[in-house]
């Protein structure tokens, strides 16, 4: 996840991503910067390289836990 308003569009995260998930947006934030965003979120492996190289710490990496499958009711 990228804090769009805090991103200065330095492009370091784009180069650090081994799966090419992150790109710079054509849109700009309120400060006029092209911000980073996840173009291909399904390809993210959660390595956090992007967050480690971000000089402004505007990237947060987290993993979703899949919802547990509901148990089927057993009748006796």
Can you describe this structure?
- 13% of the residues lie in helices and 16% in strands.
- It is an alpha+beta fold.
- The chain has a single domain (1-63), classed as Alpha-Beta Plaits (2-Layer Sandwich), CATH 3.30.70.20.
- Strands 1-2 form a two-stranded antiparallel sheet.
- The chain is elongated and about 60 Å long.
List the helices and strands and how they pair.
Blueprint lengths: L11 H5 L5 E7 L5 E5 L10 H5 L23
Antiparallel strand pairs: 1-2
Number of beta-strand segments: 2
Q: Architecture, CATH level 2?
A: 2-Layer Sandwich
Kindly provide the radius of gyration, computed on alpha-carbon positions and rounded to a whole number of angstroms.
Answer: 17 Å
Percent range of helical residues: 10-25%
Looking at the structure, the CATH topology is Alpha-Beta Plaits
Instruction: Write down the secondary-structure element order.
Output: HEEH
**Strand line-up in the sheet with most strands:** 1-2
Q: What structural category characterises the helix and strand content?
A: alpha+beta
Average pLDDT value?
A: 91
Characterize the biggest β-sheet. 2 strands, antiparallel
Form type: elongated
User: Residue ranges: pLDDT <50 for 5 or more in a row?
Assistant: none
